[in-house]
Task: structure prediction
Amino acid sequence: MELKVLDKNGKITETREVVDTVFSRDYSGPLVHQLVESYRANGRGGNRAQKNRSNVKFSTRKPWKQKGTGRARAGRASSPLWRSGGVTFPSSPLENFSKRINKKMYKAGMQCILSQLAREDRLFIIGEPSVKKPKTKELIKELEGYKGAKRLVIPLELGNILELASRNVRDLKVIGSRRVDPVSLLNADVTYVSEGALKNIQESLA
Result:
């Protein structure tokens, strides 16, 4: 498999041979789906809470006597059966949503995504982005030749200057080579990876 190398004007200068095990794998929809579900679930935090019957503020007095009223027995007003009562199995901020996926499946899923991007001509090699100041204008000028509605740029390292410069650019995402994730790759229309980042990706997934 070969990837196209672009200059700063977005023109193809040459092609580069890449590792076939990473960029020539057949696409597996179920595997990629499982990888994305695992990634999204592991990024989810416990940010909801419900009250059980001990947390609901009600009197603990028995609403009526046990027998003789003709009504169903009731122990307290905080029962989950009653309106405004506690929840039987309440959600908790400590709830764990994580889904485990082993390393072999993770590598195989990432290889599927990268191979599909290469086949669809949506993955290109570029030079390392060099922005000296955390200025949005400078980064826009630097990436002017790289077209795409939703662009993903993967440098070797995402330094503080590059991160600050990229935060305000619409439809552009910049991720360091060590933090590449499946959702970002799938959401981007075009992915541009630097030579140093490409080397890291190949070493980690080969």
User: Anything to note?
Assistant: The chain has a mean pLDDT of 91. Residues 103-119 form the longest helix (17 residues). The CA atoms of residues 155 and 198 lie 9 Å apart.
